[in-house]
Fold each of these.
Amino acid sequence: METVRIGILGMGTVASGLAHIMALNQDIIQYRTGKILEIEKVLVKNLNKNRDVDLDRTRFTINVLEIIDNQNVDIVVELIGGIHPAFEYVRDALKNKKHVVTANKALIATHGEELENIALENGVRLMYEASVGGGIPIINTMINNLPANDFTEISGIVNGTTNYILTQMTERNLEFDQAIKEAQEMGFAEADPSSDVEGDDAAFKIAILSYIAFGQRIGLNEVPKEGIAHISREDIKYADELGYVIKLIASSQKRENEIELRVHPTFISKKHPLATVKNEFNAVLLKGNAVGEVMLYGKGAGAMPTGSAVLGDIIAIAKEKFGENKQPIHPSSTKYKIVNKGYSQYYIRMDVVDKPGVLGYISNIFGKNNISLASVVQRYKHDLVAPLVFITHEVERKNIDDALQEVRTYSNVLKIASIITVEKSII
Amino acid sequence: METVRIGILGMGTVASGLAHIMALNQDIIQYRTGKILEIEKVLVKNLNKNRDVDLDRTRFTINVLEIIDNQNVDIVVELIGGIHPAFEYVRDALKNKKHVVTANKALIATHGEELENIALENGVRLMYEASVGGGIPIINTMINNLPANDFTEISGIVNGTTNYILTQMTERNLEFDQAIKEAQEMGFAEADPSSDVEGDDAAFKIAILSYIAFGQRIGLNEVPKEGIAHISREDIKYADELGYVIKLIASSQKRENEIELRVHPTFISKKHPLATVKNEFNAVLLKGNAVGEVMLYGKGAGAMPTGSAVLGDIIAIAKEKFGENKQPIHPSSTKYKIVNKGYSQYYIRMDVVDKPGVLGYISNIFGKNNISLASVVQRYKHDLVAPLVFITHEVERKNIDDALQEVRTYSNVLKIASIITVEKSII
């Protein structure tokens, strides 16, 4: 039986998961591929550290060339993360005609184009299923299972940390600050959670997904981002009352020659499949012009799910008998313009002076800006301040901003507390 | 550019969808595959019928040999349905070294093993993504995207007709008879709906999915089936009250050396992702020992979604440059025993005489049979007859049957109206 030799860069959580799955499912994988998969070398920083993996000490090295320039290595698996030196290692491995599998979203979102070109020039594969959605096989599903489709939309919940926080805020009536503290204590959020909370992590992922779906590279500065730190218990309560839950959604839509993408908190109808995606789970919704809507749901992180995705890519390469890579994966002949119109329904919450006529005055301003209203919640609290909540029909964000500029000058409006997108019900 | 020539058997709904997608997405498919896909010949019954597809008349034939024994055909697409003569056509096409793509669940569920062996002997592919779940790419996801996993469970909503009926019964408070009549009028149910309603269609599909997941062929007589015709508005109301919806679930679970599979109405918690799968949508939930739970959701039928799945298989074969098929797709070295234990929670509804002591007497019988109760709903209606509803903890079906045999002999029990499985909350 042929042996496929794997070199791993890094021995952190995902690498441990990968090694564990390779051992656990060894027989079934041999049976399915007709090959033996073997870990040849692993790059580590410290040779003396005790590691919870069943690998001989001689397999570890601190010299990256023993992996990326080793004749006995067929596939290089990059799991060190970050952009440098991961970029240089992956680039050199590809130039040495090694297939590369990576879970590195930052690397692929920023240097994917250059690396894929190098892979093509050298006739080897660059695969990165694990870079988005952990165990959810969203990238390979688009490339290999739904290639008959012209995709028009891809959106979903792709950050487990923020989904965990929002779920806890919703189910246990916590404020953001409490929820994030708990998430940190439970290991669901990092000590510095800003990359998750401010939407950077989701922006990397939607940039990668947009490339796979639409064949166009997206610069990270082209993804408008809004995090979840400003979401209050009160917004979650109104959402619930109006039949919604709040989720951090990364979305990308193609219309004619335009692509619009963003990361932002969004009202999701409780009847929508994305509404049941809780805690650390992720889900991605695709729209293709043949298949219609397809959703994939699963664990968005963790050693075993992410290891499953990495090993899936390794097996795909192994099954191909190292077939030469001649075809770019999902290119497009069209060049799309990236736009930022924010055409959507909106939820707007404000604090107003509790007296008659205020609602009418504000509604008038909305009307002048071509904003029509889907629902209004007004509670007379017989107090000085009353909350006023609107859900608009679909409109461009510019109209909302123009209207609110005028609303802000109205003396009876004390504060515009929240503006949150409401999902256009896809299903 | 290389041309891949396709011969289609049958020109019904799915074939029209396929032809339509091939025309609609021609550019994008050429770009992705580097090949030109062309319909060479189509087998029809009547050459004179007007057809809503953009194909030259000379492409149609009534002679099957012009497709399955035609040197100019690379891939045969079987879309005539039923077992005969589809089986003979597919068999002969494979023997003539044509790759075959089919959407025929009955054929694959009954003759899949024989046909796959013939395909292997002849070094060609037999692919059937469209046989289960319409556009949902569940089969290829298991084979190609999640090959690192030992699967332990596959279950889901795989029949759109029954899901449509149950959704309408739930949302509009209809009885089964009304709902099916409407479904027939709207084209969601056939004139003779028995294959859907009695669970045969779902049984074909779970047999195929079990093979892909566990590598074991399942005889159709090994799948216990229970349809939805006996589900009443009253059961749906109690389900709602207790936090559930009723769905027709096809499920298959592997434990050690056993597989247990079945098709049956099931109480699904409203918090479960399967609960939001409505009307004609399908969803399949997978459990792998590395990836954990993954769910795929989408349209389970229709010309375009099913055409998308068929074309996905065609493109996969085309991209492989007709690579020789040497490896069986998902075999297993283990032979599993098929069991039928029905270990689950159960919902039981009965009509009893409305007087004190009845609940205690019945609970006693349950206790003797090691059935413990998760919830009881008793409504004193101050009438002769009162409904009594139980949800048990997990127990084998035999215990339920034994207990109910004794319950039936109790003079204060007028009728045991319903016994329905309650999902073991997977997520």
Amino acid sequence: MQVSFTPAEIAAIAQPKSTRGATTATICGIAALSDAAPGDLSFLGNPKYKTTVAATRASLVLLPVDYAGEPLPDQLFLFVENPSVALARICARIEQALWPKPAPGIHPTASVAPGARLAASATVGPLCVVEAGAVIGERAHLQAQVFVGREARMGDDCWLMPGTVLAAECVLGARVRLQPGAVVGSDGFGYEFTAGRHEKVPQLGTVEIGDDVEIGANSTIDRARFSRTVVGEGTKIDNLVQIGHNVVIGRHCLLCAQVGISGSTTLADFVVLGGKAGIAGHLAIGQGAKVGGGAAVTSDVPAGAFVNGNPAIPLQLERRLVILHQRLPELFKRVGALETRLG
Amino acid sequence: MQVSFTPAEIAAIAQPKSTRGATTATICGIAALSDAAPGDLSFLGNPKYKTTVAATRASLVLLPVDYAGEPLPDQLFLFVENPSVALARICARIEQALWPKPAPGIHPTASVAPGARLAASATVGPLCVVEAGAVIGERAHLQAQVFVGREARMGDDCWLMPGTVLAAECVLGARVRLQPGAVVGSDGFGYEFTAGRHEKVPQLGTVEIGDDVEIGANSTIDRARFSRTVVGEGTKIDNLVQIGHNVVIGRHCLLCAQVGISGSTTLADFVVLGGKAGIAGHLAIGQGAKVGGGAAVTSDVPAGAFVNGNPAIPLQLERRLVILHQRLPELFKRVGALETRLG
Amino acid sequence: MQVSFTPAEIAAIAQPKSTRGATTATICGIAALSDAAPGDLSFLGNPKYKTTVAATRASLVLLPVDYAGEPLPDQLFLFVENPSVALARICARIEQALWPKPAPGIHPTASVAPGARLAASATVGPLCVVEAGAVIGERAHLQAQVFVGREARMGDDCWLMPGTVLAAECVLGARVRLQPGAVVGSDGFGYEFTAGRHEKVPQLGTVEIGDDVEIGANSTIDRARFSRTVVGEGTKIDNLVQIGHNVVIGRHCLLCAQVGISGSTTLADFVVLGGKAGIAGHLAIGQGAKVGGGAAVTSDVPAGAFVNGNPAIPLQLERRLVILHQRLPELFKRVGALETRLG
């Protein structure tokens, strides 16, 4: 990370409610409070690290408005409502400075079919393939070695990283990010067993991804049998996640790494699935429900519930059962003692 | 899905035993009974939806021969032995109409080594790489950005989707489909620990994939240490599945998403592994055995058995233990009560 | 595998302490003792197969120095300290013979940015992309369709297989192997929930991979939020493994397939994680610790410990609890009997 911002430039992005102290340093990096050196920006994101602020050597510190301490010499405090959010905003600006989108246009090594419709402001990088009938929105960025199938469409400001696949007829909203190797629109897993063989059921539907969705590296989202597999606006999907055909995911969900969702299951909005959680097919997961890491969900989950374990049950019960399970040796002994006493 | 078939064209594919009613509609889509609109084809695949047939607005309905109801006006019933199979056959035809294979030949942006042998009817799409000595069968379709390593071979009518890798010397039968990002022939995971380090054991074997196998998006199949990793004819593998080196999988198995099979394990024919199931190495899974989703198999499974849980045990026992496990709070109370009574 | 070595050539690589017998055969293959035919090399890697040596038809057998038997006619025994290590060394030579690295240079279909710095001995294969500022070491091999982002760097003798991604600013040591589809430097999974939405926290850090690391097919390693995600020297990572942002992995660890490690967790040296194991975030796993396949680690693991289960606990206890769990039906009966006796 090679960056260079003046404290005034940082303040212009963070828009602090108030400030304390001053620094002449140029900001060249970001670091945790305890790791920071002069020239670094740091922040108090979690109140439990409050005591480390006094000792930080960072030149500039983002702090919550109720923080009471004084800066060191040549140190500037910026007081903001939410230091983590302010930091995210600063980082977004740094990201653009670090990795600016290449100029619009089609790289000479890309293979774009005659019938494709590309916004003039879009960038199609080296060795990408865009098939006939595909539609690419304004400022979209196909970085390198991306595949966009026939009649596939994407909205404005999408970023498809190297090696991503958007299969035929699938649709991305605006500002969608596909991390490297993500696949949108692979065939659903459907077969009819007949005459001693599994005959393929062609998967003729599509995938529709809402605005502001992010899909992690090497994750896979299957196209529907007919109709659509859906990922709602603002949902974020981590790496190596599998979404089966005809799944419908609501808005602003979080799916951590290696999650798997079987076919035709629906998630309402604001659902959170921990890493490696698996959801069986044809289930309904209610709004705001949470599933613990590694849990195996085999029945519907009501809105707001937090389930865990295999099979997944309400978290409180699951925690209690884990403790009792570890007391089984004691229980066997107690029962044996009772039997001995009764002769 | 933009299609257009006459009822007569559909009937020619489905070859009904008998028909009832008539329709003048052109068939433009496929939908579930309750979702269908005029112009749609629908079907009764599962008897439990029988009562929804009477209310469907589909113009054409595939029904089992024993269905007794009458069609609406402008509605045609086709009676077939297995509506799901008939539908699959119709969908296969639609798939060809939707996504016709491009004309044979090598795209000018593909990189094909001089020593490769391609059938004249094969299609090598944009930005594919075919190394020396590779053999590509009749009508095979390398869609885009596919890699075929040296001396690798594939039979007739294979379809390798974007970003797939068939590594050196590995072999595909006929009609094999690789979904986007699938890797056939990565190195097995083998090391010797010597002098405080893990020294790589080169993986010199290959992978052999039988006819009619399908491999899901971003799944990985490792080459053998020596000899071969094998996937038998007709076996279907979902997304993000890992097959270790020297694994031998029988014919007509189903491996659901995110399954993992460790090295040297063998599966007989017709085995079914639920999503996220894991099988330890050097085990034998018998013919027709079933493993539940998320199960961890740590010992051989006899033919015909259904195992579940971690570690996997026979399903009946596992179900019973889950119920008793959830009654642990009660059991602790009962034992406590006994102790109190005995003073 | 098409190879041809004289017994003298094999002996020159294996450097035996002593030999017994002789053969005129040319060595054309490698096979297990019981599968080997004349012309094959075989080996006794595991003492439990000792009795199969006498019956093997292999022309050349690698044996431990304390093996007492006599060779058949036209059979040569080579006695070495560790037959498996000797075999690995022979296989490495065969691997080079089978799959020689192409000549140095940039394939005409590759897209290399002007500002990239490539060693003259490096090979950049067909349809690779190398962005500006990237640095490629001596004899490095970018096989085909590889992506190397801006300012990324790799040491000498790296091998990046087809479809691999080394994202911007990430760093590989020397002799690193990336299996097909591996992604180094995808964004970490970080969001701030604000105003009812998950706002992306840009991931501005990098990934640093040590010397002699191998990363499996379609595995994903996320870049740090700031600073670095680290994989230490000599660590081997299997297929479909997920490494979260800011994870620090020590030297000479083994991570089996489908492992997942959440953000900011640290592994000391020589840690072994079984297949499908999951480690929660912000944990510390001590030196030489072992985690069983499918285990879910939710708290720190001390050096040298072996944990298993979900949640993971010491292996001995976990094994005992599994057995007692399977005796729950009996325990419920015994408690019922006690209750009956007490009336």
Amino acid sequence: MENYRSQSPFSRFCLLPLIVVFTLQMDLSAQTSEKDADAAFIRKIYDRALTDGRCYPWLEHLSLRIGHRLSGSAGAEKAVQWTRSMLDTLALDSVWLQPVMVPHWVRGDAEQVRVSGSKKYGTFNLNALALGGSVGTPAGGVSAEVVEVKSWDELDKLNERGLRGKIVFYNRPMDPTKIRTFEAYGGSVDQRAYGASRAAKYGAVAVLVRSMTLRLDDFPHTGSLRYDSTFTLIPAAAISTMAAEKLSQVLKEEGKVTVFMKMNCQTLPDAPSYNVIGEIRGSERPGDVILVGGHLDSWDAGHGAHDDGAGCMQSMDVLRIFKRLGYRPRHTIRCVLFMNEENGLRGGKKYAEEAERKGEFHLAAIESDAGGFTPRGFSFDGDEAVFGKFFEKVSAYEPLLEPYGLKLTKGGSGADIGPLKGMKGLLSGYSPDSQRYFDLHHSADDTFDKVNKRELELGTASMAALVYLLDKYGL
Amino acid sequence: MENYRSQSPFSRFCLLPLIVVFTLQMDLSAQTSEKDADAAFIRKIYDRALTDGRCYPWLEHLSLRIGHRLSGSAGAEKAVQWTRSMLDTLALDSVWLQPVMVPHWVRGDAEQVRVSGSKKYGTFNLNALALGGSVGTPAGGVSAEVVEVKSWDELDKLNERGLRGKIVFYNRPMDPTKIRTFEAYGGSVDQRAYGASRAAKYGAVAVLVRSMTLRLDDFPHTGSLRYDSTFTLIPAAAISTMAAEKLSQVLKEEGKVTVFMKMNCQTLPDAPSYNVIGEIRGSERPGDVILVGGHLDSWDAGHGAHDDGAGCMQSMDVLRIFKRLGYRPRHTIRCVLFMNEENGLRGGKKYAEEAERKGEFHLAAIESDAGGFTPRGFSFDGDEAVFGKFFEKVSAYEPLLEPYGLKLTKGGSGADIGPLKGMKGLLSGYSPDSQRYFDLHHSADDTFDKVNKRELELGTASMAALVYLLDKYGL
């Protein structure tokens, strides 16, 4: 300070800027040490997840001991009870079940779908799974000529004249040139969702849909359809991509092909079920919630390991890791395992209703529902009124997350957390590598052995790191 | 232009800046349209790779019809002839075999490694593979007490007193907290490389090394060792991580454990082999080469599918894609399938010698030798004198490659292209996701079914995109 006295008038004139610079520097070095502290804590999260993770053995139990768990099934009930009991071991502040009535669709006997009387190939089976929510065929099955279409235009041109009494075969493949496979899915899944009613409109009697996968193999991939009740509800099934190729080939070679379908799936009355919830209460703002979750239900094939056992076990492990690290959050950190994402979204809707009713503000909600693959980042969404500001704030975290291979982008979030959007918090979807997801999605091949331990654990750590930053800095 | 006449003197004064701005704009819009053209061509490369790729069926053939191909083996010879015949179908400007003498080590009979006479567990086998280059045991095997160490310090402290006549068991695991698994590998592989001679220095009679993998399973992972000829050459084998855990546990429980090892591996005289090379000659600078390659040899377990059948098939497919797209490169684009990366690097050394002799400047060399997983980017290396400038230039490509998930970083390149470094071109290593690589690396589990078609194809496209930019803009 002594030097001030010997300064020239010009220097004295410059004192203010000096002070400003000094203050700025202090501020910057405070910021730097905060950043170092954040980096160190995030490092701890990853170390813990990679050396002492539970998501993988938990997923093993869920997959191999409980298995698939369609809403309303015994598997879903077991999964609810078991995940609740696991959350109970974590010394959280609360663990509870949130009741919700869910659709109860049952597949019944194994589907029979076969080409009959081909000149060249005789009679042969097409590997098929009824679409979720589909009605069954008449008890004796249905037999009809098949008409292949690749677009709605083709369908509309064929019209009642070409389609009455026929089975419509939707065979537009997912586009392999999309780098993000979710885009390819988005470009084809309309056939599965709307195909039945749009065919019924023209008098078709049933529908076959090429499975939503980029792989050529013999697994049918199911998924939900949406009936338009204006038209007759006709049965619909997905066939494997190999079956689709074969059927298309026979149609090309022989012109006319007859398929027999028999399915006795049906929708029973709604059944009681639950969202499974656990939380660490916030020390400063307990009414503000940061949610991390996935969906506990799955289709009734395989283990539902990637879809979405992975996301559920990761979400539970995020809370466990915070507890193990002795982290005391400012906001309430809540893990939610939603029921019924696959065929109704009842869990997500119920959860949002209840949150609204209790006046719980959801500062942020992160869903992991894109498989347990290597992390690539997070995509963010939110109500227009607030999203720009939020995204700018969150983008500033990127340098802390980049060393872990994470990018932050605008985009979709998750189906279950969608109903929270009106609450004007931040929504986020965890985005792992998407290349292998649709190979397995909704098929008997979505089994535990397809999940890599480290990839799953890295996802857990990535989610925990984002939760930590959101909790520390708010929005 | 008419408006100029009515301009105020001040405006006229500003004409020069206007002209500068105008010229800049023209320049910028020329740059923009170049960028659009580049983006469009890169898109074409990806479209082709993802809809009409050959790398996957080629890898299927290499894996299932030829199988593993250690230098000097019949498999290696078959792989040379078959890849040459495949390159011959691509209408390249030249395809040739470059002779190179390679080490010829043979494993002999299946290794016998067993714990004998444990009080609690009796006698039991440890799944093992001799390390590449290891000498065999005496014909009747060797039986000795085991001493476990996790660091060189421990080894040095045990010294001759603690190690003479013993079998040293190196059991330092790869560090699971490293995000990039290659770092974890780098932190442990010294045990495999130097363990035998450092133990022999103290009179040990044999060595067991924990397999270099982050996974806990029962596959032993082999790999080369480096003897220091100052000391006795003693036999060395990798044991699976499960075997390592078991052995460690028994040592802890019983204090003293005896292991019996019998291996009759040996090194035969050097054998003749080849690098397999194909090229599209450059239209403007045929003497300047852009190389894309992998190594054709593999360890003698599994299929060598990820290591490095993947990199070889991708490199061949890069040239095929350029031909299919009718691309006429300015520089010579050359695919090189190096022989003997795994245990000698003779192919890489020979190739660099020959290039030097012929005065071929290697503008750039890209090696794919980190598995056929989803692309994450490229790392770049080069001679100090030129690297800074090169990396700056290459970094400018990033916006064109980012939509495909690629990042460009400084780092290592590839073992086979290392000997080209003195030529002062750019070296690059293709960097796919590394999480699953060491699960399979050098083990019987590195089989074709572990390779995902899209992930492999995306790698091919990524390499082709980088080659295209390097070819168009030079360095």
Amino acid sequence: MLSTTPRTTLGREKHRGSTDRTDLYEVLDSGLICHLGVVRDGHPMVIPTGYGRIGDTLYLHGSTGAKSLRAGGGAEVCVTVTHVDGLVLARSIFNHSVNYRSAMIYGTARLVTDEDERLAGLRALTEQLAPGQWDYARLPNRKELAATSVLALSLEEASVKIRRGAPNDEPEDYSLQVWAGVLPLVTMWGAPETDPVLPEGIDVPIHIRERQ
Amino acid sequence: MLSTTPRTTLGREKHRGSTDRTDLYEVLDSGLICHLGVVRDGHPMVIPTGYGRIGDTLYLHGSTGAKSLRAGGGAEVCVTVTHVDGLVLARSIFNHSVNYRSAMIYGTARLVTDEDERLAGLRALTEQLAPGQWDYARLPNRKELAATSVLALSLEEASVKIRRGAPNDEPEDYSLQVWAGVLPLVTMWGAPETDPVLPEGIDVPIHIRERQ
């Protein structure tokens, strides 16, 4: 079960809320990037960035010099992951909507200092985007690790919203001669584009070919 | 040209910044949703929501009862629109990246009260997601308009970041026997799914069929 706090209790469209923790995992695990919200000098700032999950901890990373993570370490953050699954084309403009799955996580980001946890977090971040690459590419060296901040965020305070299915129109609109339905949005991987300077004879590895 | 303020001057990866206003328009006009950042009770909050653009104004909307827009009207917001175009699979984990186009807009959201501007904003919001629907579906009635807040945000303070192309690896890594390149992410519309309760004889309109 997901926790209920004032922030995660939906004020509107409660029927779209999920309190199932597996829904939270599903939304996070099938995403590529999140939008990280921080408050800097009193102003909101929303940064697209990668993430990874291990159990009930979300990992974020950045350069040790990045403005957004300086603000984020030890500070309140909101991490949002959103999938757009389709357009809901209703009989009325007012009931137009989007089929989506989204997760919002609130909490205080903790700067990870333990080297084992830092590596585990970076591995989770890499594997979220590109499964198989951690065991395939060159691992970070000491200098690269020193240049990288890893932040941990508990999934304790989270909410999930999901909208699926056909439009919900006003009762009187169902007799209109207006087409209604869903236009699905499909996301897929294209054919790998080899780096032009790659020497000949190095094939696309199977874990990348298999994603298509 | 885009303005330069402390917030829109990139601290890192300056080479990815664009100061071309047409890049800003392109990123915004090809998006479906944005992530709206607000500060509520001192905490950041990031909400996925629709938007529309008219000239140098971005329009947002929501229920008059929504928590996020109550915080947003007259308050500082940050709106971020992100496109993920592909994964950058480098020879080293450290140089893994994402090909993306993103725009961040900072400013104070203005609650729109003029009825003509409200309608124009709602039209832009609808057409951003579903071009052609404003002239096809039933327009908002007085009750629906009363239940809808429209916010305007100037595009004056905005930044754009774009990453394209092959990995940038460390010089010494180019001799590794590791495949490197880009895995493109492709987004497309699927076949329209007609509402199961739609009466027979109403075809999918051409402006929806044409999107595929």
